[in-house]
Design a protein that fits this description.
The protein is of the alpha/beta class. The chain contains 11 helices and 11 strands. The chain has 2 domains: 216 residues, P-loop containing nucleotide triphosphate hydrolases (Rossmann fold, 3-Layer(aba) Sandwich); 46 residues, Alpha-Beta Plaits (2-Layer Sandwich), CATH 3.30.70. The strands form 2 sheets. It has a 9-stranded mixed sheet with strand order 3-6-7-2-8-1-9-10-11, sandwiched between helices. It has a two-stranded antiparallel ribbon with strand order 4-5. Bound molecules: iron/sulfur cluster (SF4) (2 copies).
Length: 281
């Protein structure tokens, strides 16, 4: 069972929900796929036991074989390989490692080399749940490969909580893909609602069932409730704004540890999601 937690923009409480939910589900594993800015580990505080590097391949041209026919450049959708007047230029950061240019090259002039783009860290949190998170190296453009490797490493786990990148980028799609259910975390503010609409469209397009958690309820306005009502979106949970919770967040503390009433609330959230998944199956 894979449950993705996502939001229209950063800072809405996505990681708050992911961390509180995961520590209240017996037998789950939590992964942070927001590889550009992972922060789930700040809340779950795993003792890191393993660090696996993630590599990606890029094309290398043998100029003694290349006749500058241009087929590789025509094939590449990402402008990562460009046949110029007297040589083929490769932009390795733009390469998506699809392997296509080698297939179309009539002169067998292309081979591939590996390069390190980031890491996957694994450990056990202070609450005893397994945690994994990916980290993209500075200067790299796409973390999709790390997200895919991270998800592959937990594909046999029974319950996986996926803290996803915000928005609707390729990274978000890679993180959410094949999830059984998604939880959109949003704030009751006009900006929160506007960004959330794109996420709703994305999930509908991907045919992933989802519900909404309203974080910091009590602030802002009613727009989120009106929107959810008009689109028949289920509000799974409201987390009222609280200065105590905000203080715990700022200090990197998962608040249901300090406020035990939330243990049951997040456990019930999981039960609700589970019954939705069973209903959809
Ligand atoms: S397809 Fe092969 S031969 Fe043609 S330009 Fe690219 S590397 Fe050179
Ligand atoms: S491997 Fe794919 S993405 Fe990379 S340069 Fe070749 S065609 Fe482009």
């Amino acid at each position: 069972m894979k449950i993705a937690i996502l939001s229209g923009k950063g800072g809405t409480g996505k990681t708050t929900v992911a961390s509180n939910l995961s520590i209240n589900i017996p037998g789950c594993i939590a992964i942070d796929t927001d590889v550009e800015e992972p922060n789930l580990h700040i809340f779950l505080k795993p003792e890191i036991e393993k660090n696996n590097i993630v590599t990606k391949e890029y094309p290398v041209i043998d100029s003694s074989k290349c006749n500058l026919c241009g087929k590789c450049g025509n094939f590449c959708r990402y402008n990562a390989i460009i046949p110029a007047k007297d040589q083929v230029v490769v932009f390795k950061e733009l390469c998506h490692d699809c392997g296509g240019c080698k297939i179309v090259c009539p002169k067998e002039a292309i081979s591939y080399k590996k390069r390190v783009i980031g890491s996957i860290y694994s450990g056990i949190s202070e609450c005893g749940i397994p945690v994994k998170y990916g980290e993209l190296n500075i200067g790299e453009i796409s973390g999709v490969k790390i997200i895919k490797d991270l998800k592959k490493s937990v594909e046999r786990e029974k319950i996986v909580i996926i803290d996803s990148p915000p928005g609707t980028s390729c990274s978000t799609v890679a993180a959410v893909e094949n999830s059984d259910y998604a939880i959109i975390v949003s704030e009751p503010t006009p900006f929160g609602v506007s960004d959330m609409k794109m996420v709703v469209e994305m999930l509908r397009e991907m045919k992933i069932p989802f519900g909404v958690v309203v974080n910091k309820s009590g602030i802002g306005d009613n727009e989120i409730y009106e929107y959810c009502n008009s689109e028949s979106l289920e509000i799974l949970l409201e987390i009222p704004y609280s200065e105590d919770v905000a203080r715990l967040y700022a200090s990197g503390t998962t608040f249901s540890i300090k406020f035990p009433k939330y243990e049951k609330i997040f456990y019930n959230l999981f039960q609700k999601v589970k019954s939705e998944i069973i209903k959809e199956a």
